[in-house]
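Format notes (please read before filing issues)

Several people have asked whether sequences and structure tokens are stored in separate files. They are not. Every record keeps both together, in the order shown below: the sequence lines, then the token lines. Line labels are part of the format and must not be stripped during preprocessing.
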Amino acid sequence: MKKRFIVVLLAIFVFSFVRVDAASAENLSVKLAGRILIQTENHGEAWYVNPENNNRYYLARPNDAFSVMSRLGLGISNKDFQALNKDRLEKLAGRILLKVEDSGKAYYINPLSLEINYLGRPNDAFSIMKKLGLGISNADLNKIQESALNLSSFDFSLNPGDDFYDYVNANWVKSNEIPADKSNINTFSMLSDKNYLILKKILESDNKERKIGGSIAQKVLDFYDTGMDTKKIEQAGLGLLADELALVDKIENLDDLAMEMGHIHMVTANPIFELYAGANPENSEVNIASIWQSGLGLPDRDYYLEDKAQFIETRAEYLKYLNNMFALLGGSAETAAKNAQTVIDAETALAKISMSLEDQRIPELTNNLMSLSELESLCPNFNWQSYFKERGLINPGTINVSQKDYLKGVSQLLKSISLADWKIYLKWNVLNGNADYLSKKFVDESFNFYDKFLYGKKEQQSRWKTVVDATNNYLGKPLGELYVKENFSAEAKEKMLELVGNLKISFKERIIGLDWMSGATKQAALKKLEAFGVKIGYPDVWPDYTKLEIKNDSYLANILKVRAFDSNKTINDIGKPVDKNYWWMNPQTVNAYYSPDSNEIVFPAGILQAPFFDVNADDAMNYGGIGMVIGHEMTHGFDDQGRKYDGKGNLKDWWTVTDAANFETKTKVLVGQFNKYSPLPEYNINGELTLGENIADLGGVIISYNAFKKTLNENNNKKIDGFTPGQRFFMSFAQAWKIKSQDEYTKYLIENDPHSPNKYRVNGPLSNFDEFAEAFNLSAGASMMRPQSDRIKIW
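Then the structure lines:
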């Protein structure tokens, strides 16, 4: 056994690798089984090919890899190294040995002379290896299936019952640096980076269809090219935006202001409020005109109103940003400073009447249906007739005013704030909403405040990434149509449908077994669950962009054209049936969602990648990854918001009074649990703001685990990598949510994001889950676990 160990598991296959660089993935996996590979192109990142499954396991850079190697029983000991005789050297010819006891001294066995050549420690060995033609290329390495579980990320010195997130991810956090152009690095961002390269290839390809005027390829590629033409953008300066700003100057009264706001909302920005087509909360089959508060330059109203040190500093930096941007428009420094203060004052006034983030999550508060005449009575100082006419909406019909008190307050502000100040505020919205599409001086100022100060980024990302982002934002569906042609398989969709079906069965069993819910409410819940719609990969019917004209002339012109196109679409949708084929995310997006007004769960192709999903991975990995995501989105249909909608997506109470009270009692405990978590000193999670996502995380992991257990049988209920299937499920779950963030970004998330920071999305739910404790044989007093009497199970 020991001899086999040395010959197979320890050796790095290199020399003979030169002769198989054209081999198939399957042949490479078999040929390299039991060996360690070092990537010469990545400065020596090390991988181990497991002979049991021919998957590759990441060992980290050699100097960091030895704890993982020791755990896997890899490497060669000093004793075995000294015992190398001629027979053994012949078997090891052409390979590299790493001595784990000497922190990775590397030796190469010359196949011609059988001499042992010292290569140095791994970080010093690559210049010699390259000269000898050793190592493995990235292209060949990628032919070998990667292990679903990244053991190099684990810190096995920790107790999983103390901090499971750190147990799984601590070494990954230590060994990875946040790129200078990012505020954080996580699983989602790493998959997005992979998609960046795919999308870049598409956008820079010589697509033959591009020559066909009006084709999807022509529109998308021309849009991208204009964004990449920085020389033309610099020459244009303000360009078309100067004309838009001039239109604001022509406003002479409040009637003009309402009409100009209609134009601004159509092409440049959303000051004061946003108008869109949304499903009627009481009849989800039909779109109605919907109005939502808008128009703040800072993330939320609290940034203007509260005196936290973070907010005071942010207001000061925002004032500097305003001043700098107005200065770039020309005029005196005094005028720029005055305009900056005018905007701060106007936005502070709007913040005072704005609905809080917490209240925005309560559907009953944002369901305020009214007629045009009722809207005019609510906000009489705004000329709604002129506004709707400019938007092309002659008869708005029923209107949902999501924040009634806000619009009532806006009417008062239209009189108390001077017309001159409103014009400055509108100009600011036009400028700020388009700064990223102007010349470098505007882009730099926008980056310095929003990305650098607020989010903690150190430098701007490459121009091509910025323009890929813009293409995604404005032409995401047409770009997605090109993306899925080569980046999504029927096999993946079939496997996902199987997973969704199994989780629906699991959720059904959970509902039936609830001890706090009456039979009547259970039947209604089961009816809603059965009515769930499921969308996977990409739309069955693609949106029609025939009428959108994109030219290879002006970046800003194309931006404004797409905005006008989208505005016309939303206006045309008002009063018409809801399009059941529409997706609210692009296929290439690494995310998923649940829509309460259509009662559907949606999984774009972008998230259907490892570590969330892999058709070749064991069930534990897929159920712990994408299975939990599926369960999470399903549970949103029954969280504190989703539970208020029925199976058709209508805002309708289907709960008994007692069952609703039982639900709220449980959720209050969950709020209290998360209120106590402090991701940073003096920064606690807002349990009310994050309640819906915390419910979904808790339900998601429970529902997915119950579904996963049904897959186990005598053939697959065995250890892999030394861990049981149950343990691998929870490891997969924790691995998928790894993140490393700048403190600025973490603070931003705590204040604004309805999701808890990732570490607590793992430890929080698991601290309530008995099966997790059982899987790792945790003691009753394990520090991460909540006392048995305090453990929460809702769904």
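For reference, the curators noted about this record: Residues 379 and 558 are 34 Å apart (CA to CA). The chain has a mean pLDDT of 89.
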